[in-house]
Amino acid sequence: MSVETTLLFILAGVAVVVAIRWIADRTGLPAAALLTLIGILYAVLPGPNIELEPVVVLTLVLPPLLYNAALDSSLLDIRRNLRTVISLSVVLVVVTALLIGLGFSLWVAGATMAAGVALGAAVAPPDPVAALAVGKKVGLPHNIVTLIQGEGLLNDATALTLLTVAVNVASSGHFSFGHTVLEFFVSAGGGVIAGIVVAYANRASRPIQRDPLIANAISLSTPFLAYVIAEEVHVSGVLAVVVAGLIVGHDTPRLSSGASRLQVAAVWRLVDFLLEGLVFLLIGQQLPRVIDGLSEYKTSTIVIAVSITVGVVLLLRPLFLLVTQKLPASMHARLGGDPEENAIKRDRALNGREITALSWAGTRGVITLAAVFIIPAKTDDGANFPDLDLLLFCAFVVVLVTLVGQGLTFAPLVRMLGLRANKSDKARQRNEARSASVRAAMDRLEEIQQDEHDDADDQAIETMRKQLNHRLERYLRRIDLLDQSDSDEVPVSPQYEAALRVRRAVIDAQREELIRWRDAGTLDDEGLRVLERELDHEERLLPDRPRA
């Protein structure tokens, strides 16, 4: 494929991603599922397809996607829910792989346990992109979102490590339990250490990251650095990326400048949007490649293999979550709550509605296909890898069933379950934090006033005090309004909404006047951009509201 053709493919892909995002925003349907269906539709039409190269996905696509997800996650929330996160991202992945391997060895003609485990490792890790996109839009409770995020961050490392072990066993024909367990823990532990090293190197470079451009360059390089370092020493690159992202994301509010945070966040949103969209579009285009190798298998063999794989993936997850609730209190999966809550409420077990939502959030995606495609075509002795084409097809069916089936039905399910985030509590927490920050600012003003200063300083201090008092009064009124409300939803204040409309109208008028000055030749473009950026930042501070 020529460079021009490749460029046209990329541009067409971006156009499709943008169009689907627009449709998804207006219909509430998950963009990931829609893009996969568009990819399948294109794949069955005449014309060239782009094959999903596993090495490219694992090296160039997966690190930035995982890193950005880790940056947006909460290290404290994951630590608070660590018991459940580890249960889902390690134990459930291993059990899924082993059960599929056992099923293949028992009921799929000619299949080996190792080949089945390799497939099981590939299909075990959920890719939570579609579920999270829908869950956040419909107001899924914060603790459930945290569990889905934490599981999605850590399960890839477990699955890819287990896949490597299973492929080595299938290729060599030798298996040692002790060596396998040791290899698994060395890979995982080494990945954690590599991630910590890269995160602390990033922390050491913070003094030079005050420049937003330098901060962007370092931020975009960090996931690749973590991945490459880990892979070079033969440990989990995926886990290194996740650990580095969690630590860097935790450090960012304290160690980064405001300008750097704004620009880095904007760049990562764009990278994440384009990469995720193009990857889901490519998933659908792999259909012809997957189907081509099935001619040598009996229909009954294909049906049995697919049934085992899909059945274990769909049924084991809810069963696992239910069973873990019956274990002793120190072992079972629980929801970590607000640190201010009492220990009983904080350590409560998952209820039926939460288990149902978590079960249906197990969508599979790019990790599954990238993983199954890295299984080698030949074993160590030069023979064909056992049932490789069948493994590819089973993995693809799992992706379609979960990504499209579960993805399209996740929002209606959450609404039917009545799982809703308590927006009133969240708004109260934020307004209380705002009030505390304003009081801290007023205390600092008092300290400044006690130092030596002139009349100009007095005027500046008094002006700032009036502004802070006005803010504090607004936040306290907001808290009173929230306390008086019995609803979980944030109450609407007519005065506050009117103030927002007026402020937006004023900003629009200022922006239009600046453009008129530029068009008349009174203000140059550089000046327009500087002044418009000031208004943009001011507008960005206002809460999102639909325009009339």
UniProtKB/TrEMBL annotation:
Gene3D superfamilies, sorted: 6.10.140.1330
Membrane topology qualifier: Multi-pass membrane protein
InterPro entries: Cation/H_exchanger_CPA1 (IPR018422), Cation/H_exchanger_CPA1_bac (IPR004705), Cation/H_exchanger_TM (IPR006153)
Localization per record: Cell membrane
Membrane-spanning segments: 6-24, 31-49, 55-73, 85-109, 181-201, 264-283, 303-324, 355-375, 390-414
Any matching Pfam family: Na_H_Exchanger
Domain annotation Cation/H+ exchanger transmembrane: ranges: 15-415
Keywords in alphabetical order: Antiport, Cell membrane, Ion transport, Membrane, Sodium, Sodium transport, Transmembrane, Transmembrane helix, Transport
Annotated family: Belongs to the monovalent cation:proton antiporter 1 (CPA1) transporter (TC 2.A.36) family.
Job description of the protein: Na(+)/H(+) antiporter that extrudes sodium in exchange for external protons.
Protein name: Na+/H+ antiporter
